[in-house]
Specification:
homodimer; mainly alpha; Arc Repressor Mutant, subunit A; Tetracycline Repressor, domain 2; 9 helices; 0% strand; elongated; transcription (chains A, B); Homeodomain-like_sf (chains A, B)
Chain lengths: 198, 198
């Protein structure tokens, strides 16, 4: 638990540093209490921000939490650029694994909460799932431009689905979390062949 | 809501019909109350069974519920046998869709409950997920024997994961449930090419 310095003079317009502090504090509180027990009061107290500021900026808990998670993800992960689709996808998988291991309990808790909370579901979809799908799309586009994958290959639009299946399926079918060996096998057995790369 | 006739003379050793009645009653109660609010007392009352019988036979609520779902699935779905892997997989997808539509709210509720309940998670995995994975494996084995898929194709072991990805990914990425057109496209774009069928 780090201490979050207060900067009361910047309550209305948030600087990048102040936003970063706020997101860090939200993630800390999430790890401590879980989503259901996290209150905007606790965020306001920990960050010495006014609740009015929090609501003005993020509307409510679902968007604040999803934005904090998005922020942590973006800060940690530059776009992969290894020169090959296999390398890029492995790099993404490696980052996904690291995130999943680092905040496994937190993400499970959020998935649980999102089942019963459409607003949180929507915020997570919009701020975590869709940006990841777009990142993937950009990598695939580069592979098409390099001539690694034929333009119009039908599997292109399903690559995010394949990856979700890999992450979720391991847990569901084999009863254990994915690791890098497993994801590498899946990439070589499923994703690349479906894209016509063997 | 159908009425479940009581057969009090068969409390200790359950006939197939009696088991069927019991499972139907459990599913009815599940649809009415959801998993969390379902009690073994309610099951005992609705089915005029003793709680001792219920616990002796199914240990507790998680296994009773998972077994009832399994029973409904098996009763409704004969193994597909269309003569081609594409036909068989489409048939499975069609059945999966029908189940998903029929009991969408119930299955979402169960997935939610399973997040917080390892015993339920385990029972659903053992009685619903793994038997489906095995069914799929049997169909794939037949396709290998027919010469449609080369033995040892690496994607063979990941077909269940691909399908889970298709079902879950649509909802997560596109924000809507899968339909048959979508599953057909996914089969033709991902599953069959990964297996070397184009």
């Amino acid at each position: 638990m780090t201490q979050t310095p207060a900067t009361p003079s910047r309550r209305t317009r948030l600087s990048t540093e102040r936003e970063h502090e706020l997101y860090e504090a939200v993630l800390e509180l999430l790890r401590e209490h879980g989503y259901e027990s996290l209150t905007m009061d606790a965020v306001a107290a920990r960050t010495r921000a006014s609740k009015a500021t929090l609501y003005r900026q993020w509307q409510g808990k679902p968007r604040l939490v999803a934005t904090a998670l998005r922020h942590a993800k973006t800060a940690a992960q530059p776009d992969p650029d290894t020169g090959s689709l296999r390398g890029d996808l492995l790099e993404l998988a490696r980052c996904g694994m690291r995130d999943a291991e680092h905040d496994h309990a937190l993400m499970r808790g959020l998935a649980h909460a999102a089942h019963a909370n459409p607003e949180l579901h929507q915020a997570l979809r919009e701020l975590l799932v869709l940006p990841e799908a777009e990142r993937l799309e950009a990598l695939l586009q580069q592979a098409v431009e390099r001539g690694e994958v034929a333009a119009g290959t039908p599997a292109l639009e399903f690559v995010p689905h394949m990856f979700f299946g890999a992450f979720i399926g391991r847990d569901l079918i084999e009863g254990r979390p994915p690791d890098l060996d497993y994801l590498t096998s899946y990439l070589d057995a499923v994703v690349l062949p479906a894209l016509g790369i063997r």
